[in-house]
UniProtKB/TrEMBL annotation:
EC number of the protein: 2.5.1.61
Gene designation: Hmbs
GO terms (BP aspect): protoporphyrinogen IX biosynthetic process
Organism per entry: Calcarius ornatus
Uppermost EC category: transferase
Entry similarity comment: Belongs to the HMBS family.
Listed CDD domains: PBP2_HuPBGD_like
Domain of life: Eukaryota
Classification of source organism: Eukaryota, Metazoa, Chordata, Craniata, Vertebrata
Protein name from the UniProt record: hydroxymethylbilane synthase
Length: 308
């Protein structure tokens, strides 16, 4: 069942200005609630950190490359952002990307660009408005346009969005049969990384309208989470990294805690203690940034964005 959502329809306004958390999810959840569909597939980064009551993320699939990618106008083919001419215009509707890249590449200008991937690539190629646009590598890859990626932005250039590159399957929280069925799609490493990222975002009260960014790495049973907040122009920022151990044996966790959700995710086939450790990591990292003044940076960013 193909569906269109508010976020798909309001194409003349920057996402961060529409201000609705469930922009790409509301219509889909309504269909789920009315039993018209049994599961809904989202980009995890479109799903708010608190889901409406009655819904849960029953599966988080193995993450595609979570990095941001630069797609260049044909005339800039073969270049990188640092080699673009002074005052080249870069299209991105993401405050997170713009904040980081303004700071890193002060010679460039950033403008909003909306629409789905096809529309954005068309705007880039057929007009002279943009020298390049920034998109998630995962989306380009899924659509078969990987060959358009001119540059991948590593963590030293641009930290990614919470949940970027992962697909989530949303289901009715009480629908045991469907929950059991989709749980086979869970990728344990992705689940733990995304729980940590979502817990970080939730504790910061971040969303579409503020620049919050992350980078996670799971290696040798250690989960590393880097999280950052930025002012809109990137001049002010806070960034820290923390880690925690997540190798726990799988205990049989049936019983009253059968359906424990961690930031909206139900993953019975991933050890509960590991999920808890990942969630705590996100909360602790957010608390650390808050103790250093993240609240102020984010509230100023929010006010400035509302005034734009």
């Amino acid at each position: 069942v193909a569906m269109s959502t508010t976020g798909d329809k309001i194409l003349d306004t920057a996402l961060s200005k529409i201000g609705e958390k469930s922009l790409f999810t509301k219509e889909l959840e309504n269909a789920l609630e009315r039993n018209e569909v049994d599961l809904v597939v989202h980009s995890l980064k479109d799903l708010p950190t608190s889901l409406p009551p009655g819904f849960t993320i029953g599966a988080v699939c193995k993450r595609e490359n979570p990095l941001d990618a630069v797609v260049f106008h044909p005339k800039n083919c073969g270049k990188t952002l640092s080699l673009l001419p002074e005052k080249s215009v870069i299209g991105t509707s993401s405050l997170r990307r713009a904040a980081q890249l303004k700071k890193k590449f002060p010679h460039l200008e950033f403008k909003d660009i909306r629409g789905n991937l096809n529309t954005r690539l068309k705007k880039l190629d057929e007009k002279e408005d943009f020298g390049a646009i920034i998109l998630a590598a995962a989306g380009l890859k899924r659509m078969g346009w990987e060959n358009r990626i001119g540059q991948l932005l590593g963590p030293e250039d641009c930290l990614y969005a919470v949940g970027q590159g992962a697909l989530a399957v949303e289901v009715r929280a009480k629908d045991q049969e469907i929950l059991n069925m989709v749980s086979a799609l869970h990728d344990a490493d992705t689940v733990l990384c995304c729980i940590a990222e979502r817990a970080f975002m939730k504790h910061l009260e971040g969303g579409c309208s503020v620049p919050v960014a992350v980078n996670t790495l799971l290696k040798d049973g250690q989960l590393y989470l880097t999280g950052a907040v930025y002012s809109l122009d990137g001049s002010d920022s806070l960034k820290e990294t923390m880690q925690t151990g997540v190798s726990y044996p799988h205990q049989n966790e049936d019983g009253p805690n059968d359906d424990v959700q961690h930031v909206g995710i139900t993953a019975k086939n991933v050890p509960g203690q590991a999920q808890e450790a990942a969630e705590n990591l996100g909360v602790e990292l957010a608390s650390l940034l808050l103790s250093k003044g993240a609240k102020h940076i984010l509230s100023v960013a929010r006010q400035l964005n509302d005034a734009r």
